[in-house]
Structures are given as structure tokens and as C-alpha cells.
Amino acid sequence: MRRILVLSLIWLCAAVPLAARAQEVHPVAKDPLMPLHAEGTFEVKNFPLGSDEALNSTAIGRFGLDKQFHGDLEGTSKGEMLGAGNPATGTAGYVAIEQFTGTLNGHHGSFALQHFGTMEDNKFDLTVKVVPGSGTEDLIGINGTMTISVANGKHSWKFDYALPPHK
User: pTM for the complete prediction?
Assistant: First the structure.
């Protein structure tokens, strides 16, 4: 009985023309995202956090982040950073996630940023991206990449991002 059922299913699948099967599944077209740009400055306070069980007996440092953004991005951000290496010798690395809450060019909500940074021979390589699916309110569906610069002790940022059309 089981063999007859399997053979019937195989015959049924072969009998349905390929074109008909291809028409059954079709992707839903998404609204195109418009590329946008924002920039401004921020102040940051970082402070050591106590080691947890995962970091005991390691050379990994753990820090809290508290930021105030100004410019096209207005609001606050809080997060956590893990770092290792020896910044005094120009070699180190860090990862961080922070949660921004405020407005971006008039759109209110929040989203998370994920950092991946290294330093070799005092040269920085930093990637900061929006965490997919982290946007809320007017910022649902946001994606983008941020660049951060530090000159004379002042932090500035540039943000290339996209938002789906709001309905």
C-alpha cells in the first residue's frame, strides 16, 4: 500500500507540467528602498563593566557605552563592547552592539548597530551596520552602514541607509 502511494505521488508530480509548477511559486515584489544619507556628531562615554563567567581568566575587556547623537540622527544610544589586544602598541580589536533611540531625519524609533573593529599598526578598520530586523516604529525595515571618524578628540558619523516606504 505504501509503495502504491509513493508511486502515485511520483506519477502525479511528473504529470504536472513544469510551467504550471513554476507559476505556483512566485516571489512577492518588495517596494524598492531609497538610498538616504545622514551625518552629524556624537559624544560617547565608555566605562568598564565587571567580568562575567564567560570572560573570567581572559584578556577580554568589557565596557558599557552611553552616546548622545546630534545632527540628522538625534537621540541616545546604549550598548556593550568587548575588546582585546593592546591599543598602546597599535594592535587591538573590538565588537559592540548598541541600541539607538530617537529620530533619524524626522523618523522616530529605534534600531541596533553592530560594530566590528580592528587596529593594526595604528590603522583602523571599522564596520558598523544596522542589525537586520531591529528597527521599530517609523524605522521598521531600516538597513544601512555607518562610518565613524575621530579628529582632535571629536567624534563624527556618516550614515548611508535605506527605509521602506511608509504606508
Answer: 0.78
C-alpha distances (whole Å) from 144 to each of 46, 114, 130, 147 are 24, 11, 5, 10
**Cβ(113)–Cβ(44) under 8 Å?**
no
- 15 belongs to a structural domain: no
Contact between residue 139 and residue 159 where contact means Cβ atoms under 8 Å apart:
no
Confidence at residue 31, expressed as pLDDT on a 0 to 100 scale? 57
Residue 144: partners with Cβ closer than 8 Å, 6 or more residues away: 129, 130, 159, 160, 161, 162
Give the residue ranges of DSSP H helices in the chain. Answer: 2-15, 18-24
State the CATH number of the domain containing residue 78. Answer: 2.40.350.10
Lookup result for grid cell 578598520 = 125
